[in-house]
Known about the structure:
Helix 7 crosses helix 9. This protein folds into two domains: 4-135, Rossmann fold; 139-239, Winged helix-like DNA-binding domain superfamily/Winged helix DNA-binding domain (Arc Repressor Mutant, subunit A, Orthogonal Bundle), CATH 1.10.10. It is globular, with a radius of gyration of 19 Å. The chain has nine helices and eleven strands. It has 241 residues and is α/β, with parallel strands linked by helices.
Amino acid sequence: MLNDSQLMSETKYVHSILLIDDDIELTDLISQFLTQNGYQVTVANDGNSAMSLLSLQQPDLIILDLMLPGIDGLTICKQIRPSFTGPIIMLTALVDDIDEVTGLEVGADDYLCKPIKPRVLLAHIRAQLRRQSNLASQQKTHLKVCDGQLSIDLPNRRVAYQSQPIELSSAEFDLLVILANMAGEVCSRESLHKQIFKLDYDPLDRSIDLRVSRLRKKLGDDPKHPKLLTTVRNKGYLIAT
């Protein structure tokens, strides 16, 4: 029989995770738990170390604490988002709606408050990674909407509008694909929330609205008079065919 060390050495990790948090006891606990569940985990306990690691590797998912020594979590998220397209789950000990909104606005895909149970965190990790996997396995390789001006390359997760490349975060890309697959039809916030997060919809949750706002901005769509992505009052959102 194999001992524990031999079993660990033969584990085939499916996804890599970068865990960034200054609480060493917490990172040890989470790292051990996630490793036992088949993830390859790298840990950074301060912002500077995290940025150094990110310059050398691109994990599949990042768990990012808001309050960090050196470079704080919001700054890290904002700086890496243009080049990092994987999911970012932000952790914080602060219970403040403003912090949550700010985190989502700079590119976080999910937001959890401490103390966090490892199994709850694992569920959120699986939901975020499952989103990407489901999109990548779709039969269609390209989507074109908005009279063909907006092109979505599904396998490579690339977007172009009027032949110009558009840099999107993982969450923004996933939302755009869902809307594009239903071009010309209204998508309710509840439906979008359930497809993206695999969780029940909270009417007070602004996550979808924030992602739509960021999409409009990156596509150059006037939020007051949008042509590509319109809001249907009390119903949801609609992308042009």
